[in-house]
Amino acid sequence: MSAQILDGNATAKAILNDLIAEVSRLSEQTGKRPVLATVIVGDDPASHTYVKMKVNRCRKVGIEPRQITLPAESSTEQVVSEVRKLSEDDSVDGILVQHPAPAQVDEKQVFEAIDPDKDVDGVTAGSLAAMAFKEQGFRSATPGGIMRLFEEYGIELAGRHTIVVGRSRILGIPMGLLLLAENATVTYCHSKTVDLKDHVSQADIVVAAAGQPGLIAGDWIKTGAVVADAGYADNAGDVEFDVAADRAAWITPVPGGVGPMTIACLLEQTVESHRRRHGLD
C-alpha cells in the first residue's frame, strides 16, 4: 500500500479529548452541561447500536445525552410533535433525529421541525444554505467530519477536481456544498450517472457516499488522488480499498476513517451550540 491513511480514529480521539476540557470549562461558566437529545423511531438494530455509541461518547466528554424512543408505527405528525418539544426546550442544545426513519415518516418534515440553532446534525434547509454560503450554522455531521479530516492532514481543496458519489440530503449534497465553499471544483455523481468510471478516474479527490459496497473499483482511482470513503455496509466501504490504496496518495480506511469523525463533529457542534446559546462565542 502506497497511500497514507487519513486516520479518523486518531483525529476523532484528539477532538474528543479537547472537548472534555472545553465542556468542563463551559459548565463552570454556565452552571449547566451541554445537552444532546436524540430522537429514534422504531427498533432498527443498526440505528440503536449507533445511538448507543453516540450516548457513550456524550458521557465520555461530559455532554448530557437524552434519548426519545418512539414506536415504529409513529406518524410524521407524532415525530414532528416530539421534535418541536425539544426545539422549544431551553435546556436542550442539540437535536439529532436518527436516520433512517420508518417509511411512513416524512423525514424532511421532521428535520424542518428542528430549531436551526439546535441543528447540530446539519439537516435542515437553513443548515444546507449556511454550508453553501459559509454563513454561521452547523455542518452536516459526516461531511463536516470529512472536512475536518482534510483540514487535519493539510489536504488542499481549492481548484482541485472533486467527485462526490451520492446525493443524499444528509451526506452527498452537503458534502459537495462544503467542498464548493472551499473553492474545489465539484461534480456530483449518482445512480443515474453514465460512465461513472470515467468521472472517478479524472478526480483529484473522491468522496464516496453511496452506501454500495465495492461500487468504485480500486483501479478507477487516479494516481495520487485523495479518497474519502463514507460508505459502510457489510463492514466494507464503497471503494475497493486494497487496490485503491496502491494508487491513491491519501485514503480513509473502513472502518476507522469517516465514521469516528461523524460522532466527533456532532459532539463538537453540540458544545458549540451550548456556547452560542449562552452568549459565549
Automatic annotation (TrEMBL):
Residues 6-121 form the Tetrahydrofolate dehydrogenase/cyclohydrolase catalytic domain. InterPro entries: Aminoacid_DH-like_N_sf, NAD(P)-bd_dom_sf, THF_DH/CycHdrlase, THF_DH/CycHdrlase_cat_dom, THF_DH/CycHdrlase_CS, THF_DH/CycHdrlase_NAD-bd_dom. GO terms for cellular component: cytosol. One of its GO terms (biological process) is tetrahydrofolate interconversion. Pathway: One-carbon metabolism; tetrahydrofolate interconversion. One of its GO terms (molecular function) is methylenetetrahydrofolate dehydrogenase (NADP+) activity. It comes from the Bacteria. Keywords: Amino-acid biosynthesis, Histidine biosynthesis, Hydrolase, Methionine biosynthesis, Multifunctional enzyme, NADP, One-carbon metabolism, Oxidoreductase, Purine biosynthesis. It catalyses: (6R)-5,10-methylene-5,6,7,8-tetrahydrofolate + NADP(+) = (6R)-5,10-methenyltetrahydrofolate + NADPH; (6R)-5,10-methenyltetrahydrofolate + H2O = (6R)-10-formyltetrahydrofolate + H(+). Gene3D superfamilies: Leucine Dehydrogenase, chain A, domain 1, NAD(P)-binding Rossmann-like Domain. Residues 140-277 form the Tetrahydrofolate dehydrogenase/cyclohydrolase NAD(P)-binding domain. NADP(+) binds at G166, R167, S168. Its EC number is 1.5.1.5, 3.5.4.9. Homodimer. Belongs to the tetrahydrofolate dehydrogenase/cyclohydrolase family. Catalyzes the oxidation of 5,10-methylenetetrahydrofolate to 5,10-methenyltetrahydrofolate and then the hydrolysis of 5,10-methenyltetrahydrofolate to 10-formyltetrahydrofolate. This is Bifunctional protein FolD. It comes from Brevibacterium marinum.
